Amino acid sequence: MQTSRATAGRIPRFPHQPRANRHGRTFMEAPGCLGVSQLSSTSSINAFSKFPSQSCYFYHKAKIHSQKAELCFAISTMLNDTFSTSTVEENDENIKIFSVDPLLESYKDHFIYRSKRYFEKNVLIEKYEGSLKEFAQGYLKFGFNREEDGIAYCEWAPAAQEAQLVGDFNGWEGSKHRMEKDEFGVWMINVPDFNGKPSIPHGSKVKFRFKYNNGKWVDRIPAWIRYATVDPSQFGAPYDGVYWDPPSSERYEFKYPRPPKPRAPRIYEAHVGMSCSEPCLNSYRAFADQILPRIRANNYNTVQLMAIMEHSYYASFGYHVTNFFAVSSRSGTPEDLKYLIDKAHSLGLVVLMDVVHSHASNNVTDGLNGFDVGQTTQDSYFHTGERGYHKLWDSRLFNYANWEVLRFLLSNLRWWLDEFQFDGFRFDGVTSMLYHHHGINISFTGDYSEYFGLATDVDAVVYLMLANRLVHDLLPDAIVIAEDVSGMPALCRPVSECGVGFDYRLTMAIPDKWIDYLKNKADLQWSMKEISCTLTNRRYTEKCIAYAESHDQSIVGDKTIAFTLMDKEMYTGMSDLQPASPVIGRGIALHKMIHFVTMALGGEGYLNFMGNEFGHPEWIDFPREGNGWSYDKCRRQWNLVDTDHLRYKYMSAFDRAMNSLDDEYSFLSSAKLIVSSASDEDKMIVFERGDLVFVFNFHPENTYHW
């Protein structure tokens, strides 16, 4: 969930950093090259003597004659991460990030304060909880846990005056299952077995009933519930918590190990519910059996799953989470999701989860917000007043300084890693977390004072440092990505340097640039310098995931790149049985080029949203009252790419070739990036990446001869 497209400004650099694309204009003539636009095999080099309009090429630099290479006016960016990751000492003078970016030393007081807050929190956790890893196993105490002779249930609800456990097992009568409260506001009960069997059957409904200061009793879904369901036959029906403890015969056991961490993630962003061709919800198992093979066939190495955490409002795209430890029941059970992840691992696919810790659903009946009954922020998951409410998202904001909030969120991460074998996370809404203003109506310019001052939410920064340290301690090969539009320095530097600890950030300005060009500029108005600058505008030693479009770019009210380029002609002009119209020819060519140049120049990893690889038409519109609760625009029309006489297959094949190219040459993980030419006159972009040279001719008419 993006904070605000308008906030995506320039990412700050620092003086000693080599820069790419400082408007070098000399056109680099190139000899033999591989014509990717022709979908040639990447295993051989084909000789071309010209660069047709709106086409792109790459070739192995070893094929360049040295005397020709000397003609190049090179502007280089060397993205080389060679700095120490030794443990940060409590010594204020030993904050390692200053050796990476000396300009940050001007904000030394801020980093000292951040460092001290982080170390203080660590000391307290180790003193009272044993270790960070143990602290993050809250799910072994809270929620429902099977014990030798019964079921233990614990809930943190300090605002409650009385509490009961109710459900199908006691006819929703809680008088015989009253809970006891300790000095920390934790309510507890042990439900003994009956005749050697659990008194609360697997799959039965349960809720936490409590009385608060006005004497009113309310029922809430347990905060740590592991499954929640709703009656689909009743419109607007509330969710019910479900006690999930399947017998061994029904419990899924993982069969395959986690695959090795890829040198560079090529991410396929997917939404399970909307992944089927028919206008209906898809299941975890159908996605595993039908969609994962497609992803693997197109040579992606990573799958990023959206909308996994339970959310009562489907159209939120999974970003208004109601039950943080529960798998979304729309697509199946926890065991079904485990099957999906295991199947992905069997195919060599790393699986990331889109995790939402930036806010929570405002839903009182179904969600965590139901535990907020007007108490102080110390006794709540959320801040009180305006600080606890996101006015654009209509959602609640966590109090990251609260001990039990830290336990809840850190345990949530470990739960998904340990129980479901996820391989990492994409953290949603990080910009909103980092600043008290949440990025609302803020245009970040790259001035360091925007990142290190009173506007910074240090509590949230410390939580993210703890979270990244935990994830990498538990799983050293984990991939953790930040969705941040602000470009905060050190966000993707190790915690040991007093960085925030993410592995990658999303380059969110890139898709906005493409949308701006496609909607507002004619082809001859495109600036190669501006495109190149946008694609290379990232911080030295901080890795990025580049993408031309994601789910954000095709939500209702907007269109995919393909549909923006070709619009209504996609309904009539995609048949290969007739000549391509100028609109279709230009659209397919630019679709390929935009995605390829974004991948090759824009980051150290690449992301594509489900279906965009073959130019999925139209937009995404979830079932809602305004569209008659239709699923027609909430699906993926795989039949389009599967139909042999339709041109969608060419875009899909090109996408597969792009990924294969990185498989063969590993250019995404290369530290070498040299932009040789970004010519607005010729509409050419030429650059080296790793051992390859890429040539893009964006001119709509001119063909350049060697």
Alpha-carbon distance between the two ends: 46 Å
- Provide a count of the helices: 15
Proportion of helical residues: 10-25%
**In which order are the strands of the major sheet placed?**
13-14-17-21-22-23-24-25
**Main sheet, how many strands, which sense, barrel?**
8 strands, parallel, barrel
Low-pLDDT stretches are: 2-49, 64-90
Q: What gyration radius follows from the Cα positions, in whole Å?
A: 27 Å
- From the spread of the alpha carbons, the general shape counts as globular
Class by SSE composition: alpha/beta
Q: How many strands in all?
A: 29
Organism: Platanthera guangdongensis
EC number: 2.4.1.18
Pathway: Glycan biosynthesis; starch biosynthesis
Protein name: 1,4-alpha-glucan branching enzyme
Comma- or semicolon-separated keywords:
eight-stranded parallel β-barrel, disordered N terminus, 706 residues, 15 helices, single chain, alpha/beta
Structural features, described:
By secondary structure, the chain is of the alpha/beta class. It is built from 15 helices and 29 strands. The protein has an 8-stranded parallel β-barrel, surrounded by 4 helices. A 5-stranded antiparallel sheet has the order 2-28-27-26-3, covered by helices on one side. Strand 4 and strand 5 form a beta hairpin. The two termini are 46 Å apart. Mean pLDDT is 88; it is low at 2-49 and 64-90. It is found in: Plastid, Amyloplast.
